Structures are given as structure tokens and as C-alpha cells.
Amino acid sequence: MINPVLVEVLRGPLVESRHAGAVAAVDADGHAVLALGDVRRPVFPRSAIKAIQALPLVESGAADRYGFGPEELALACASHGGEPGHVATAERMLELIGLDGSALKCGAHWPIHQPSARALARAGGQATALHNNCSGKHAGFLCLACATGADPAHYVQPAHPVQRAVRDTLETMGESPLFNDVCAVDGCSVPTWALPLNALALAFAKFGSGAHMLPERAKAAARLREACAAHPWHVAGTGRFCTEIMQRFGARIFAKTGAEGVYCAALPELGIGIAVKCDDGAGRAAEVMMAATLDRLLNNDADSALLEPFVRAPLRNWSGITVGSLRPTDAFKP
User: Fold this and answer.
1) What average pLDDT does range 176-182 have in this prediction?
2) How do the residues of the chain divide into helix, strand and coil, expressed in percent and rounded to 5?
3) Which of 28, 74, 84, 124: disulfide with 211, CB 3.0–4.6 Å?
């Protein structure tokens, strides 16, 4: 099945680029609410499932044992920008479990947030693993390892108890078996498991609604959603799509980016989960796909006004001049 073009990029009056992709929206029973393109094709969700990966941290009691509060829980779900507040929170998470940045296996990269990267360079600093956008997730993994008596030195390995718990959680939430032939290595060195887009959407329908989950897991999901709604800046950062959507909608929307054009979201009030994949991996197009999907599902003027800057995102040049825009195609129309 060839996926439809879902986003067009305009420069002036003409379409300059087109992005194909797929969108799945389902309820917690797995019933399709919206399906565009091939929603059964396995995709690597990458960082879009960090909230699912954080469920064992909370439901096991590890987060409470080491005193993690809402900011720490939000950062455990984050692909943060490496801003100073993000780094400080990651450091605090590690201090609470008696470790430091040297325990992180995610690798080092400069802050995604360019002003923070420039400030770090001007000060003569160096990028560390704490600046890695995944450092909060990895601090959560280390917390789970320490709380359960597992060796924290090898927490990124597929056979490690932490990664087995993550795999079991994702498999149960998405109701899709995860075989070794769909396992690869993520950018931060942990395993990443490919599963169909509609299975990802199902996982987030459950995450948002608490349906078809054991009580402790449902409580854990609610705590993570509440933490992210209360501290959306910790989930991404200044000017980022996930943060801005959750700042505008609060607990009504949980949204999370993943690499290579993947986005996932939950609409707790509607009991719907969403997963989108832009075929060419373009994050800017995936954001439009997600915004257009949210607009269609929420379907009211007030919410459409809040989503409009993301549904029809302006395209600006280096001088700040608006030279075009991105827009969803008619595929999103009812």
C-alpha cells in the first residue's frame, strides 16, 4: 500500500515539497477512529514511547522510593532540549539514586536548544550525557535498576531486567508481539522495537484512558500524564511542539515526538490514542500531521483556533520573513 500525501510545503503560491505518511487513531478497545495510509506497517517509535517506557519506573514503586516528583517524572518522559533546567533536573534524578552523569549510557550531544548550546560553548563547556535529550529517560532506567537490585552498569542491554520490563510493557500496551527480528538499537543505545502504527495508537489510547490496564499501571499512567501536563517544558522545552501543545491544552492532550517523523498522542477525555509516521522522516511534516489529526478529532472552533498555528505552520527564512507555509492535504477532511 502506498501512503497518501498528507502534508504540502508551499513557497509563495506553489507547492514546493510533499510529504507522504500514515495516521492511526484508535480507542482503547482497538476500534479505528481514523486510518490514513498503511497503519499496519511496523515502524520504530523511537522517543515517542518514552512515557510507555516510564511506566515500570512508577508502577514498580521505584520513583517513590527515590523521591521523584512531577518534574522528575516529566523528564523521564522527555526528549528535552538540554536547557540548563533540564540538565539540573537530570542531575537531581541521578543524585537521588546516588549516581552521577558518568552512569548514563545515552552518549553525549550538544543541547538541541540552540541558545543553550551557544551559551555552553561561550562558557568553554563541553557537551555531556546530561545534555542528551534522553538523559531523563536513562536516569529513570537507572532508578528502576537500582530499586530492583539489577546491575545498573548494563541497563541498556536487551536482556537486562529493565529493558525486559520495558519490552513487556510495550507488548502488553500495544497488544502486538515484539519479536527479535523487529529489534534494533535506538539513538541513545537502548533497544527499540518496531510495531504497527495502529498498535502504537492503541498503547496511547490505554495510556490516556487507563482502560484495560491493571490498577497499578493505570495509576502510574495517570501520574505520568499529570506530571507532563503540569510541567510540559520538561517534556521538550522552549518553542518545541510537544511543550506548546500541552501548554495550550493542559491535561486534555498528551503529545510526544519521536525521531524520523513519528509522533504519538493521547486524548484522555475521548479515550483515543494517535500515532503518525511521516515516510521521509521529516519532523516538521509530522507535526502538521499530528496537529491536523488533533483538529479533526477535537472538532470544535475553540480548539481549532488553538491548533491553527501548528496545522498551517508558517515557513520563514533566516531573516524572519514569512515565505510560505506547511498545510495538511484534503486527506484529513471527513
Assistant:
1) 90
2) 50, 20, 35
3) 28
Per-residue pLDDT reduced to its tens digit, 116-164: 999 999 999 999 999 999 999 999 999 999 999 999 999 999 999 999 9
Angle at alpha carbon of residue 148, lines to 202 and 62, rounded to 5°: 60
Distance CA 324, CA 334 (A): 26
Give the SS3 label for residue 241: helix
Closest to 14 measured CA to CA, from 290, 332, 331, 327: 327
Domain boundaries, the chain: 5-332
- Residues of 186-225 as b/e, b for ≥16 C-beta within 10 angstroms? bbbbbbbbbbbbbbbbbbbbbbbbbebbeeebbebbbbbb
- What single-letter DSSP state applies at residue 157? S
SS3 label, residue 278? strand
Q: Which pLDDT belongs to residue 118?
A: 97
54 burial via Cβ count (<10 Å: 0-12, 13-18, 19+): buried
Which fold would CATH assign to domain 5-332? Beta-lactamase (3.40.710)
Element holding 142 (H helix, E strand): helix 135-148
**How would DSSP label each residue in 285-328?**
HHHHHHHHHHHHHH-SHHHHHHHHHHHT-EEE-TTS-EEEEEEE
